[in-house]
Amino acid sequence: MDKVYKDSQTHYIIAIDGPAASGKSTTARFLAEEMKYVYIDTGAMYRACGLLSKQLGISLNDIPAIGKMLETIEIEIVYSVNGNRIMLNRIDVTEAIREKDISRLASDISQIGIVRDKMVDLQRAMGKDGGVVMDGRDIGTVVFPQADFKFFMIADVDTRAERRVAELKAKGIEADFEEVKKDLIWRDKNDSTRALAPLRKADDAIEIDTTGLTIEEQVNKIREIIKNKSYA
């Protein structure tokens, strides 16, 4: 019989950070399912912001307009047996936020201070009671620096590009490997060099190299670390 956590009533905050396509989102989702925790995809929240700015025709240089947009924005992460659905102002935008141009918009809009402040407030409210697995780029450094467990997932860029192409093709979207790889390299640089909450590994985060690992192996690796520390 498998071991159970030392305190079945403990509701941990688990932070998983890392660059795009490192496997963090899928791993976080499956880990949350196994632990019966809530999975919060923070990247999807920035994508939703980017999508709304596009729909409203708002330039990212127009800070007053962005601020007005944030006053009424509603973002919900709704549980579904087939994966969480992202609701933007009560409309399901789960597929729409995964389009290539929205990916870049998300990276750009996340550098705007008022946007990040709004999203961080929402994320902290969602996870304050624990029992959550939250993934992103600054969860362990900014959103929940006091998280019970922090992981930082990496993988070489070719592996990440292959994963992203497979993910897009599974959704019926044609994708060129070299273009996807180029976009990932751009996002890595953009996310890690931005002045506001840059992508970086927290000092106390555990690094997981997912190159060559299956999703199951990634989940098992993190789950065992949590279990072992829970017994300590």
Describe the protein:
It contains nine helices and eight strands. The protein is α/β, with parallel strands linked by helices and 232 residues long. It has one domain: 3-Layer(aba) Sandwich (Rossmann fold), CATH 3.40.50.300. The strands form two sheets. The protein has a five-stranded parallel sheet, sandwiched between helices. A three-stranded antiparallel sheet has the order 3-4-5, covered by helices on one side. A hairpin with a 6-residue loop joins strand 3 (75-78) and strand 4 (85-88). 38% of the residues are buried.
Order of helices and strands: EHEHHEEEHHEHEHHEH
Could you give the order of strands across the largest sheet?
A: 2-6-1-7-8
CATH C-level category = Alpha Beta
Give the CATH architecture: 3-Layer(aba) Sandwich
β-strand percent reads 5-15%
Number of DSSP helices?
Answer: 9
* Main sheet properties: 5 strands, parallel
